Structure prediction request, 287 residues.
Amino acid sequence: MDTNFEYLDTFRHAAKTGHFSQSAKALHMTPSTLSRQIQRLEESLDVTLFERDSRNVTLTPEGERVLTLAESTLTNWETLRETFQNPDRPMEGLIRIACSVTASYSILPVLLTQYRQVHPNIQFHLDTIEAQQVFEKIDQGTADIGITALPDEIPESITIKPLVNIPLILIATKNSPKKIDWKTTPFIMPNLGLTRTLIEQWLDTNDIPPLDYGDVNGFEGIASLVSVGCGIGIIPQIVLDQSQLKDSIQIICPPAPLPSLPVGLCVNTSRIQLRRIQAFMDISTYK
Prediction:
């Protein structure tokens, strides 16, 4: 990337995160290098872009204006480069994907196989993170495509493509009784995300007051605790299918039908005009 565009990209990321150290880590540079690039951009524009304190940075009014222009400039530059690519040559470039570990070995291989059959010269960078962080990565511009659960309300800055509804299942350790006593059996909840919201709504609708074991970060963590008898939990079917712990876990019939988890692709709307991104959205299907 041209130096000036690199500085704009660095500035955009720092503006989205509000943390120089966090952005430096994500962009694979030292904090001093990031600060130096921001300083040079400020000197070039003769403005102060950030108000700084010991922990966070916030945009100045001038910084807000520059961020708007930087986002459109960077996208337009990539679009321009694509415009002058020889249409007879295979599409080239990089797609940055963010998804959970579970999605990376269940859904993602199917999508990549489909895409590479049509565009074999495209390269990919994969960032495996918690599912609830995917929208944040897309909004910050540090990922091009996300695979995640889709909430009812989608930010205007995000474009989605639904892929599949994944069943939720109630699980217990192998030696647990088939009939669950909800008053005495600890219930393990995911600490964040759409799945937690769906579970809470299901419990409330069916008047089930669970014995709260505590919150766990990640479905794999819930499966791990369930497998050793710490309690019961609700996870997506696809997590158990891929889990190394599935032989020590059984699926229990719930007292009422469980909802499904809608999963799909998400992309920053400002970047969907890029041909390689649009092509990924168009080609991807999952059954």
The two ends are 38 Å apart (CA to CA). The mean pLDDT is 88. The chain has three domains: 3-83, 93-164+263-283, 166-260. The first strand starts at residue 50 and ends at 52.
